[in-house]
């Protein structure tokens, strides 16, 4: 049996009521993108100290001023490539964040602009507004993290897939479809694959989508984007299967189980809920979670309306892709970070915005429509207040963590650690970046050395073993303890290293 889905074929939806001439002239989507950039610059990017843990790992790969941190199996290098040109010029965190804030706003505009011929100007702008006002979207727009860029690539790829399967599709649609999928895979390999799966399935199931250029683009994009990840899998991990197994182990063992409760507990923070022991006891929490609980209801309503008006593809496809992208985080992991669902939020904003616009326009002009618009504005204002509260809390928490990293680095400098040097222990990667040292660990997700090799290196290089415990690691027995005030950490330093003796000339 072959499924048939109407895209933008011969049967067109009923035209919407004409918009006022002034409304047609206002570049609403561009205004949303500008507001998004301003919000990032005012609320986070400018004046925010330092880089977070994961940021230091991605940045250190291409920063000429710091040794590269251990790059674990689940990570992808797209974000490192994105920030490389900036870091080649300056190491200023403010410049980095400002550039990322402006770039993310520009890409937000470009990604949602793809949907204007599919949903219309008003719905597209509203979708971008809904997505860009989430606290997690504002927070990560200027961070060197991959999740937002996957989200924007997913929005653009899904839109180009629909436009490439429509009548009279331009050739550039196939190229841009492949490029957007390649970008998603390059930024985060697993997310890019989960995005490509429903698009490929659609090209096989839906008769109108079975076009060689579309299938070729859907296959070529992920392959091109995944070439680096696959090559690194063989070079460092022993192949694709081995890298996937190591990735699963690093993530705590990925297996089918319900993780939605963990996701809900970590919805408003912390930035990494692992292990997720957050309790929903704060009186504001129910209001902060209403929008999240409403997402499946609104998405289902949007799908029902799209089927009723006989134009389901622009609604069903983003909903299916959003569901696919949420699978590993809601059904396989055992921990949660709010940024994980950014791609799903971005895709769901499209059908929800279309639902709202269509519902408002279906009302007769006058009192009913005025009342509906007023109610929407009130609800949106309440939503903004909860998002701002969550943003402020998480920015303060992240600021405190990064400040402790800097304090620890300053203390290690005072104790004599200067590049070239080495830090080890659970909190070594970010503190190493702040200190200008290399990092290494003998256990855990960032294990990349052995106790013997570490002790040998410590004999010739300034080294600090960092721990929160009141006793040193086994490899650091006999080392001197130095409390790092204000950090909760203790640094164990070996006897002053002796310089390596040069080989005698022959």
Describe what you observe in this structure.
With 506 residues, this protein is mainly alpha-helical. Among the domains are: 251-362, no CATH class; 399-493, no CATH class. It has helices at residues 21-25, 28-45, 53-60, 78-89, 93-113, 116-119, 121-132, 135-140, 147-164, 171-187, 189-205, 212-237, 240-250, 260-265, 285-308, 313-331, 342-362, 367-414, 428-435, 451-458, and strands spanning 422-425, 438-440, 463-467, 480-484, 489-493. The chain has a five-stranded mixed sheet, with helices on both faces. It is globular, with a radius of gyration of 25 Å.
- Please write the string of helix (H) and strand (E) elements: HHHHHHHHHHHHHHHHHHEHEHEEE
The total strand number stands at 5
The mean pLDDT is 90
Largest sheet: 5 strands, mixed
Figure out the total of helices. 20
Backbone shape: globular
Helical residues, percent: 55-70%
Oligomer: single chain
The spatial strand order of the largest sheet comes to 2-1-3-5-4
The share of residues in extended strands comes to under 5%
Terminal CA distance reads 80 Å
Task: Give me the Rg, rounded.
Answer: 25 Å
Uncertain residue segments: 1-23
Structural class: mainly alpha
Task: Show the helix and strand layout.
Elements: H1 21-25, H2 28-45, H3 53-60, H4 78-89, H5 93-113, H6 116-119, H7 121-132, H8 135-140, H9 147-164, H10 171-187, H11 189-205, H12 212-237, H13 240-250, H14 260-265, H15 285-308, H16 313-331, H17 342-362, H18 367-414, E1 422-425, H19 428-435, E2 438-440, H20 451-458, E3 463-467, E4 480-484, E5 489-493
Parallel strand pairs: 1-2, 1-3
Antiparallel strand pairs: 3-5, 4-5
